[in-house]
Structures
1.
Amino acid sequence: MPLAPSTLPAVIEHADKSAMAEALSGPIRDALTAAIARRGRAVFAVSGGSTPEALYKRLAMVDLDWAKVSVVLVDERWVEPGEAGSNESFLRATLMTGKAAAAQLVGLKASGDTPIDGLSAVTERLAAIGFPPDVVILGMGEDGHTASWFPRADGLDVALAEGGGPVAAIRAKQTAVTGALTDRITLTRSALAGAGLSLLLLAGDGKKAALDAALADGPVADMPVRALLRSPDDRPEIHWTR
C-alpha cells in the first residue's frame, strides 16, 4: 500500500553532485569512525553508477582509519574485474584511491559461469567481515530497481525475503536499464536490515519521477525499491540532485 502523506520521506535536494558529495562525506566519515571506535572495524556497502562518483572521489581524500574499513559492493554484474560493466573496476578507479586505498575491497564476482555458482564463495567472504553494514550507499534506476533488485526478475523473491541469506543471484529481464548484462549478484534485503547510515542517491528528473511513482501505490515487485521506502525501520535517507 502507498505511504500516507504524513509519512512520506523527505527528499533532500542538492545543487549538483559536487554539493551532494560535500554534504554527505562528513556524515559518512563520522559513521565509519564511530563504528571503528565501537568494535574496531567498519563495513561500508557501496553501489556503482555515475551518481556517487563525485562522493567517492571526495571520500578517497578523507582522513579516516581506512585500513579498518571493509568496502563491499551492493551488487555486481557477472563479469570479471576489468571487463565492461564491472562495478569493482569502477570503485577501484574512484573510491579505492588516495587515502581510501588502504581499505579492504570485498568484491562480489566469484568463479563460476553464473551468479548461482558463486553464491557459496561470496557468502563466505561476507561472513568474514560481518553485517549489517555501518554505511550503505544505494542508487535507483528509472525502472524502480535498487541494488540488483530488478522488477519481476528471476531471483527477486529470494533477494527480498526476510531472514534470508546475504546475497542472491538475479537474472533480470533485459531492458534499456539493464542492458545486455542481466546476470547479477546482489546483497539482499536481509543483508541491509539494521544498517546504520543508509543513503539513497538520485540524480536527474527521470529518477525524481521514478521516486514519486515508487512512493505511490503498486506492487513491490514492479518497483522493488519500495521494499525499503515502505520499511519503518530501514528506509534510507533520500538525496537528489539534477
Note: Helices lie at 17-39, 53-59, 87-94, 115-129, 156-160, 189-192, 205-214, 226-229.
2.
Amino acid sequence: MADLFDKLTFTHGPAMKNRFMLAPLTNLQSHEDGTMSDDEFNWLTYRATGGFGLVMTCAAHVQAVGQGFPGQMGIFSDDHLPGLTKLAARIRSEGATSSVQLHHAGIRSPKDLIGEAPRGPSEDAETGARALTLAEVEELVEDFVAAAARAEKAGFDGVEIHGAHGYILCAFLSPELNRREDRYGGSLENRMRIIKEIIVGIRSRTGANFQLGLRLSPERFGLKMGEQIDVARAMLVSGDLDYLDMSLWDTFKAPVEEEYAHKPLIDWFTDLPRGNTRLGVAGKLMSGEDCRCALEHGADFVLLGRAAILHHDFPKKVEADPDFRSISLPVTLAHLRNERLGPAFIGYMSTWKGFVVDEETEAAK
C-alpha cells in the first residue's frame, strides 16, 4: 500500500508530491463575467500553501450558457486568461500541481441565471431544458477542447472533465436523461461518445506533458450502477486519461442498488483493472485514518472537499499527526474567514445545514 506522502506519478505532466488532491468545490466567489476574484484566488492558493499535492479549481464553465451558479469561474473566453494565468503561476510557486475542472451545467443551469432555457441531451420537463441540436453537441465538444487549450495557455498542468452529478456530460450518460436517437443516444457506447470525443480532442490540441482527468459519479440522476462501472472500466484501461476521479458522496457506504450492496462503493471501482491510469476517490474523507483507509482499499489518491474547506493545511496536519481529524461541525464564521473563505463562500456554506454556527443563537445563550 502506498503512503499518503509518497509521490504519485502520471503518464503525462508532473508528479503529485503526495496523495492529497483538492476536490473541485463550488464557492460562488468569482465575478459575474467569470473572471477571477481576489477571494477565489486567495481560497485556492491557500490550499497550495497548505500542502495539497494538486490544487483543482472549482467547476469552470466552458460556455456562457453552461453556467450553473452565480459567481462561477469561467474558462469560455480569453478574457479569463489573466486571472487564470496568475492563479496557475501562484499554485506552481507553492509546489503544487494545478488543474482546471471543465464544466457545463446542462439541465442544471438556472434559467434566470443564463437568461434562456437550459440545454441538455434531451428535453427535460422538470427543469424546462431543451434538447441540444446535433450541431450544438458538436459545438459543445469543441468548447470543452478549446477550454482545455486555454487552461494550458494559462500555465495549468492539466484539466479535469466534469462528467458527474447530473451536469451535461453526466446527463448524456444517463439513460433516463438522454433519450436521443442520433449517434449520441441509445446504447451506452453512444451515450459515452461525447466524453470520448472531448478526450480525443483535448489530447490532439494540448502538449505531451498536459494532464487529463475525468470525474464520474456512480449514482443518482438516472444513472445505473452497472453502466457506470462499465464506463469507469473503459476509461481506466483506455490509456487516454492520467486519472479517474470517482465522486462517491460517501466513500465506504454500500451502493443504493441492492444488486451491488454487498461490498463498499469504493471497492467496485478500485477492483477494476486500470493500467497506468491513476484512480482517486472523494466522499466524506475527514481524517488521516479515512484517507489511509481509501488507499488500503486500492485508491491511488484522495480528493478532499469539506475537510479542505475546514483546514487549508489538512495534508500538513495529517503529516504531523497521522490520527488528525477535521474540526467538528458546526464551525464559526471566524474559523471560515481564517481559512480564507470570502463572504460569498461563507454565505454559501451557511446554507448547509449544521455547517456554520448560528451566531445570533450562540450570543443569546
Note: Residues 134-154 form the longest helix (21 residues).
3.
Amino acid sequence: MSFKIGIIPVTAFQQNCALVWDDETKIGAVIDPGGDVPYIQEQIDKLGLSITEIILTHGHIDHAGGAAQLSEALDVRIVGPGIEDKFLLDELALSGARYGLQARDCHPDRWLHHGDTISLGGVAFEVRHCPGHTPGHMVFLSRSLNFGFVGDVLFRGSIGRTDLGDYGDHAQLIASIERELLVLPDDFSFSCGHGPGSTIGQERGTNPFLQG
C-alpha cells in the first residue's frame, strides 16, 4: 500500500504532529504542526515529500501553534478545524507566550464541516465533528484503511481534557465519542494527539472513562 504515516512528537507537550503521504507520488499533508517547525521541515525534506496542505484537528496551541509559520514556509494552505475554534486560533500568539512557545495567530484558508471529505496521502477521510475538548474539534476517519486521526478526543486509556477554559464540556465529549467513534469496528485503529495509538475495541473494553 502506498499510504504512509510518520509521527513527529513536537514541543514540550509531545504532541503527535503527523506526516501523511502517498509513497508513490510523495505528495502529502501535515496534520497538527504544533511547533518545532524547523524540525518538521527537516523531516519533510528527509522523506522527499511535496506537502500540499496543513490540516488541523482543533485550535489548541500544541496542535496549531506552528501552522502559520509552516504554511508560509511551504506556501500551502491551512484546512480546518471547525469555525467554532476560531477564537482559539485568533489568540495563538498570546497562548504561546503563556507557555514559552513561539506561535503566530492562524487564519485557515478553509474551515471544515461535519460530513466533509478530505484526501490524505491519496486516501479519502471522512470529517466528523467531535466537540467537547474544543467546540470545533474534528476527527478524520478512513473506512477503507480502518484507521483514523482523532486528535485530543480519545487516547489510549483516557480522553481529552475538558477543564481548559470555559468551553470544555465533559458530557459533550463523551457523547461525541459514543456517537462518532464507538460505532466503529473493534479493529478500527487510530492515532491520537499525544502518546501511542490504540483501537476502538481496546478503548471500548478497557478505557476507564468509557465504562458504565
Note: The domain at 3-210 is CATH 3.60.15.10 (Metallo-beta-lactamase; Chain A).
